[in-house]
Amino acid sequence: MNTLTTHPLSTILEKLFSESDNSQARFFQTLGYLPETEQQALMKEAGGENYKIFYTRAKDHYMSISRDTGNLLYILCRANSSRSVIEFGTSFGISTLHLAAAVKDNGGGKVISTEFEHKKVVQARINMEKAGVEHLVEIREGDAIETLGQNLPEKIDFILLDGAKTLYHPILMMLENRMHTGTLIVADNAEWAPEYCHYVRISDNYVSVPFAKDVELSIRL
């Protein structure tokens, strides 16, 4: 028996994935009604310095990982025996639940996650409680540059980057001194974070590879 496929966490995940599918369909439908110039401007905000504008506009929408990526997170955390996990970009908590399930099945630990939007923080915390993993998860509200800049564990086993793409590289640099040989880093939608990808691919401190169609998987050496 494992936490990921067992009630109540599995039930909560199925509900959230269903809501996410509907939410993303509405979001892209709305996006399709906009003139092409506005669509391009909006997507530029998502990956640029004005990322807060984009994420404020998307505050009611799920910005979640896929089911396959969720399973990948669980597999990697279990294989790495991760007990100290950092997540950038909680949203409503789908990825957080996968990470928490792995940490629980590894014998316990802590997932520290951060989210910019207050509404999502509130709902994500409720989802953790309903899934029975609230004691394993700390969700910090605010800009990740601030929330992940203090009070972190001495050693980090696993990192998920799934927020504003322009912050992937600076957040990685913030966390580097707490990584160890074997720390795994997953960056979702990494094609929107060219500076980050360039760094992890050329640095002597990492081995990194594009994995699946939208994930960059790296290991600290």
Describe the 3D structure.
This protein is α/β, with parallel strands linked by helices. The chain has one domain: Rossmann fold (3-Layer(aba) Sandwich), CATH 3.40.50. Helices cover 47% and strands 20% of the residues. The protein contains nine helices and seven strands, in the order ααααβαβαβαβαβαββ. The chain has a seven-stranded mixed beta sheet, sandwiched between helices. Strand 6 and strand 7 (215-220) form a beta hairpin. Helix 2 crosses helix 3 (51-57), helix 4 (67-79) runs parallel beside helix 5 (94-105) and helix 8 packs across helix 9 (194-202). The longest helix has 25 residues, at 9-33. It is globular, with a radius of gyration of 17 Å.
Give structural attributes:
single chain, 221 residues, alpha/beta, Rossmann fold, 7-stranded mixed beta sheet, globular
Largest sheet: 7 strands, mixed
Report the CATH C-level class: Alpha Beta
* Radius of gyration of CA atoms, rounded to a whole number: 17 Å
Shape: globular
Number of strands: 7
Which strand order do you get reading across the main beta sheet?
Answer: 3-2-1-4-5-7-6
Query: What order do the SSEs take from the amino end to the carboxyl end, as H and E?
Result: HHHHEHEHEHEHEHEE
CATH topology: Rossmann fold
Organism: Photorhabdus australis subsp. thailandensis
InterPro entries: SAM-dependent_MTases_sf, SAM_O-MeTrfase
Enzyme class: transferase
EC number: 2.1.1.-
